[in-house]
Structure formats: C-alpha cells, structure tokens
Amino acid sequence: QVQLVESGGGLVQAGGSLRLSCAASGIIFSINAMGWYRQAPGKQRDLVAHITSDAVTYYADSVKGRFAISRDNAKNTVYLQMNSLKPEDTAVYYCAPVRAFGSTVLPNVKSWGQGTQVTVSS
After folding, report:
1. Residue 11 to residues 27, 29, 43, 118: CA-CA distances in angstroms?
2. C-alpha dihedral over 12, 21, 70, 37, to 10 degrees?
3. Residue 60 burial by CB count (10 A; 0-12/13-18/19+): exposed, middle or buried?
4. pLDDT digits 0-9 by tens, 51-92
C-alpha cells in the first residue's frame, strides 16, 4: 500500500520561499512519475508540477518560473521548491504518483497523504 508523507509547509510572507518534501513508501519510487497537487478551500485539487522517472519536469502555468520539482530516488522523496510565493499559492499541498495518458496526467493513488498546509500572507 502506498504511503505518502508530506512536510515542509508553513506560514510565509508574500515573496518568501518554502521547500516541501514528500516521502513515499510502498511503491518502486524510481520508476514512478511523481506530482505535486494543491487544493485551496472550496476549490478542486490541481496538479502544479510533476517529474518523470527520468527527471523531466513539467509545471502549471501559474507556478512556472517560481516552483521547482526534484526527486531523490535514494531517499524515495520528491521535493517542491517554492519561491516568490504569492497569496494565491495558499493551499494544502499533496504529492502522489502520477501517470500520463497523452497530455493528461492523473494521480495514480487510492488514498492521499495528509498534505501540508502552505499559507502565504500579503
């Protein structure tokens, strides 16, 4: 069973930075693409970045140039470096293995981790 443990969130002022971590177990991490999602109150959960098994990265337009996803296969961990944070980045952030179907990327997980709260004050 896949277990995902996100950490690193917190309260930061606009323009600040945070680094999120997600430790995964129960999967062969190195062969899985991994994604970071976020969900703001009252909104759907959206994919913000994902990284393939060979470390090719993709970003939502809203975070491109500000966020950077990376992975450490030796630690079964995926990271999200978030810079130049904006109040609209406030959300709970989740990670998950993902699968791509053409241009569509979907989470490949039955249950999500607890997420980590990111709050950006103006």
Report:
1. 31, 29, 20, 6
2. -80
3. middle
4. 999 999 999 999 999 999 999 999 999 999 999 999 999 999
